[in-house]
């Protein structure tokens, strides 16, 4: 078992732990939570032996294999799969010993090593590494790319895959979901649930903790408290403990009333859509968990937008991409004040591309982008953290966008985002990722946007800040479009889910809880992601036969879909030409009356033809999707 005995340690002048004792038993999955800067990562460094305690001791059983994610990935030209295989230390040692025995002609030693190699699953190691890579979002063939060809975020995924490759007894994961999209988070969640070793996990993703953790370890005021159960259970237990304090109780009652008003307001307008109902249930649950966050340092909200035009923005037949390569084709929808949209879709499907289009930072390749004159966009993306003035201060940044406000007003505002007192005057350069994210959100909210575009806003934010952001979004009166791997944030803030898939953007049929099943059904070729040399020949043959049958059955529908798309494009172009002709001023002269009537009749007929063709196209695409769903069920 893992034990801490009267452990105390400091980092510089700051006492992070004082006389902490803890026992974690084999097989337990412990979520380590606490405010940013309280010492969670330092505790990991203690467990790894990188830091030493001022008093007390850490005890890890002799012989336990400890795995953790390295902070830096080497700049190497080695293939990604070789880098991941290095995570299995024993495997690599046996391979080196086999090479030595082979060179020495030691047949007996070679045979012994082969037996050991087989017992640890050495023959399946490459397949296991490939499955880890593909589960974390790497495409087939990516495993042979050199490590140094990947960007920083993808190198972090490689480092995570390498860690999971280790057949560990103790696994230490510090914010493993930070560089993952929702698909990879769901996969990792399933992998960790089946992990048989002992897990200690730092995470600010409440849904992830709820699914994985059997215990929650709370680091607060230099003390460790272990709670049995998942994160939701921890919140309930902590709320009960805090309610015993009179001052906390008063604040809790205000917080409950605050959340209750959101729930009642939303209940009055909730539609029958499954995601809207899911959001209502999540809001009702927030009434219960709000008291657990009454001691949060974060308090902020949105001021009413100055203007709320309808629509705020409209896309029509939009094609978007980079260079000459389209990522999205034929996208069309509008955004109204009050819209709450969550974007779903695989990594690389185009979610961030759509956000960039909506923000106006990525011009369309074709189609129409129309925005209201009074549109004011609040756009959050990770790259904005790097665009902050490194030599500036939080107060200086805020004064640039609100020069007429007094310093005290600005300081009070920044205090709600955790920049209290002199922290408002700290330079930007040494701020943590979480502090920079809080500052960017503060700057966006201060500008009173009427369209809010959030692309992974919770990376680096702790649980209290995520809770405060979730509450603030309830009172936002503009439109919200959100991309996030934080399912709790998506569930509580989104009324409607749009699926970005295969170049299209369409409503997702279901709620957030249905998305993992859609992923499983969509990925009919999951088994084929494993390299051909590592798969059973009979299985490959059966999959090829099933795929061929599916393609044959779908061929008529696909052909019809293509014909209707071509017909729709032709009719739409004809209608656009007629509408352009109708814009000519001379067409409305008295002597042109018969010509005008003919044009109007042509417009009506083309509009009817477009509508009929669209209906036919929708029927065909629905049939294709239903067929695909049946095939998915058969595959499962």
From TrEMBL:
Keywords: ATP-binding, Nucleotide-binding, Repeat
GO molecular function, one term: ATP binding
Superkingdom as given in the UniProt entry: Bacteria
Basic and acidic residues bias (residue ranges): 532-557
Disordered as annotated region, ranges: 526-557
Location of the ABC transporter domain: 2-246, 313-527
Stated family: Belongs to the ABC transporter superfamily. ABCF family. YheS subfamily.
PANTHER family linked to this entry: ATP-BINDING CASSETTE SUB-FAMILY F MEMBER 1, ATP-BINDING TRANSPORT PROTEIN-RELATED
Protein name per its UniProtKB record: Probable ATP-binding protein YheS
Protein species of origin: Chromatium okenii
């Amino acid at each position: 078992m893992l034990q801490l005995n009267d452990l105390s340690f400091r980092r510089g002048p700051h006492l992070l732990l004082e006389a902490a004792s803890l026992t974690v038993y084999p097989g337990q999955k412990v979520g380590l939570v606490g405010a940013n800067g309280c010492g969670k990562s330092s505790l990991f460094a203690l467990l790894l032996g990188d830091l030493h305690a001022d008093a007390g001791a850490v005890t890890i059983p002799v012989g336990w294999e400890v795995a953790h994610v390295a902070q830096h990935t080497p700049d190497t030209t080695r293939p990604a799969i070789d880098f991941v295989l290095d995570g299995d230390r024993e495997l690599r040692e046996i391979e080196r010993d086999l090479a030595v025995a082979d060179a020495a002609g030691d047949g007996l030693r070679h045979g012994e090593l082969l037996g050991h190699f087989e017992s640890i699953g050495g023959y399946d190691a490459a397949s296991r590494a490939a499955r880890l890579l593909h589960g974390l979002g790497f495409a087939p063939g990516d495993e042979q790319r050199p490590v140094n060809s990947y960007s920083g975020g993808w190198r972090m995924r490689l480092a995570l895959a390498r860690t999971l490759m280790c057949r560990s007894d103790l696994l230490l994961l510090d914010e493993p979901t930070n560089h993952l999209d929702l698909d990879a988070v769901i996969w990792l969640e399933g992998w960790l649930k089946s992990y048989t070793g002992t897990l200690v996990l730092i995470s600010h993703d409440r849904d992830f903790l709820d699914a994985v953790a059997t215990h929650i370890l709370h680091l607060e005021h230099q003390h460790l408290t272990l709670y049995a159960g998942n994160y939701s259970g921890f919140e309930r237990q902590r709320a009960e403990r805090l309610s015993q304090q009179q001052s906390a109780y008063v604040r809790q009652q205000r917080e409950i009333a605050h959340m209750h008003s959101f729930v009642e307001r939303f209940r009055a307008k909730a539609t029958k859509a499954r995601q809207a109902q899911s959001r209502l249930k999540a809001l009702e649950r927030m009434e219960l968990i709000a008291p657990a966050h009454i001691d949060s340092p974060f308090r902020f909200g949105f001021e009413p937008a100055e203007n709320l035009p309808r629509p705020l923005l409209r896309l029509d037949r939009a094609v978007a991409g980079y260079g000459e390569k389209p990522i999205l084709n034929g996208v069309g929808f509008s955004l109204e004040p009050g819209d709450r949209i969550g974007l779903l879709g695989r990594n690389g499907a185009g979610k961030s591309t759509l956000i960039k289009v909506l923000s106006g930072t990525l011009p369309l390749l074709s189609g129409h982008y129309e925005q209201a004159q009074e549109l004011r966009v609040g756009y959050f993306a990770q790259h904005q953290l790097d665009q902050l003035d490194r030599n500036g201060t939080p107060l200086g940044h805020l004064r640039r966008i609100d020069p007429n406000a007094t310093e005290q007003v600005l300081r009070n505002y920044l205090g709600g985002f955790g920049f209290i007192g002199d922290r408002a005057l700290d330079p930007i350069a040494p701020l943590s990722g979480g502090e920079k994210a809080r500052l960017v959100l503060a700057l966006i909210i201060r500008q009173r946007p009427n369209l809010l575009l959030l692309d992974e806003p919770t990376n680096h934010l702790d649980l209290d800040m995520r809770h405060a952001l979730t509450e603030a979004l309830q009172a936002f009166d503009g439109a919200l479009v959100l991309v996030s791997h934080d399912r709790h944030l998506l569930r509580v803030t989104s009324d409607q889910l749009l699926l970005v898939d295969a170049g299209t953007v369409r409503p997702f049929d279901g709620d957030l809880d249905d998305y993992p099943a859609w992923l499983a059904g969509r990925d009919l070729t999951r088994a084929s992601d494993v390299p051909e040399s590592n798969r059973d020949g009979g299985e490959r043959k059966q999959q090829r036969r099933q795929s061929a049958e599916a393609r044959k059955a779908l061929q008529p529908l696909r052909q019809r879909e293509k014909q209707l798309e071509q017909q729709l494009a032709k009719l739409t172009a004809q209608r656009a030409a007629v509408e352009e002709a109708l814009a000519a001023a001379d067409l409305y002269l008295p002597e042109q009356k018969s010509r005008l009537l003919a044009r109007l009749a042509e417009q009506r007929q083309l509009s009817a033809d477009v509508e009929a063709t669209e209906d036919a196209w929708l029927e065909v695409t629905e049939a294709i999707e239903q067929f695909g769903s049946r095939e998915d069920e058969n595959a499962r």
